[in-house]
Automatic annotation (TrEMBL):
Species annotation: Brachybacterium huguangmaarense
Biological classification of the source: Bacteria, Bacillati, Actinomycetota, Actinomycetes, Micrococcales
Domain PurM-like N-terminal: 65-169
InterPro entries given in the database record: PurM-like_C_dom (IPR010918), PurM-like_C_sf (IPR036676), PurM-like_N (IPR016188), PurM-like_N_sf (IPR036921), PurM_cligase (IPR004733)
Gene3D superfamilies: PurM-like C-terminal domain, PurM-like, N-terminal domain
Entry keyword annotation includes Cytoplasm: yes
Family: Belongs to the AIR synthase family.
Protein name, per record: Phosphoribosylformylglycinamidine cyclo-ligase
Amino acid sequence: MTTPAPTGAITYAGAGVDTRAGDRAVELMKEAVAATHGPEVLGGVGAFAGLLDVSALKDYRRPLLASSTDGVGTKIAVARALDVHDTIGQDLVAMVVDDIIVVGARPLAMTDYIACGRVVPERIADIVRGIAEGCRIAGCALVGGETAEHPGLMGPDDYDVAGAAVGVVEADAVLGPERVRAGDVVIGMDSSGLHSNGYSLVRAVLAARGYGWERHDDELGRTLGEEALEPTRIYTADLLDLLGSPAGAGLHALSHVTGGGLAANLARVIPAGLGARIDRGTWTPGAIFSRLGAWGSVPLADLEATLNMGIGMVAVVAEDEADATIAHLGARGLGARAIGEMLADDELPAAAGDDVLTRGAKGVDGGAVLMSGVHPGRG
């Protein structure tokens, strides 16, 4: 039996933190989290630390651990506005594990952190269910998490999410710039839409037009909110399958197209002395990209430096494996096509018109990427 607090006493609940709501949220999410656990996960939900049996790593000659951490940015503002919270978690997983697969690593385990102004058990459970679904898609165990209530620091309906994951790759199988050669083919893989970057631009464009998330757009075939909340595609399982196939032997590098767009992220995996010539004419970005550009009179260079423009992951592969790679991904339902080629840096043509040349990015003194040509339908 709990002794009532004396009249006028200041309690934790009175200060804005409801620990019982937190316990209720855990009860609502337990089943979804447990569904991501295989026999390698020890213990259950609620432990101080997640335990993972990594005995299988003994079979590696030289296992390297790969780690990544990320969030989903201001896409959360859309989820809050629409009171739809069960897709943000999948976005979070995608942003983390698809960075891990870039080096060729298999994600093993993930943890999450949710900070909020007030714990609403059903909302927190929806977020975590989305994280669990993302982990299921990626083949990764969700082994821990934390929900922190911050009254006074955050508004009652404010929240933010972050996650971290760890994976493993054999040392001599690491993908990256060291493998890239002149003559390699650059393959672009379809995004599912906006993914989880550039929402500050998206929100600014829609606000300037006076468009709300409930607005239906005939070209999109759904509301702007539904388009904006489309979950980020998770490429991990498809790429692990590719790496395990004969075509995977030709895979030299991967680039996850996130903040900064295609060119800036691709440049991070190109060695100095080489450059990628990307032909915009090889793919048509989804309708949302052209709509945003038109609605906001956004320059093409700014769109490309902010949004993924329909390409969410890029592979650099040996020329003789390019067709097999595209066919393998297509058989798994992932649209992919050759969008460019690797050249010696001094063989890149000079930029002209709407061409944009990027050299290195995000602290990496790497190669160059030339975006050239015109997307089909842009005249």
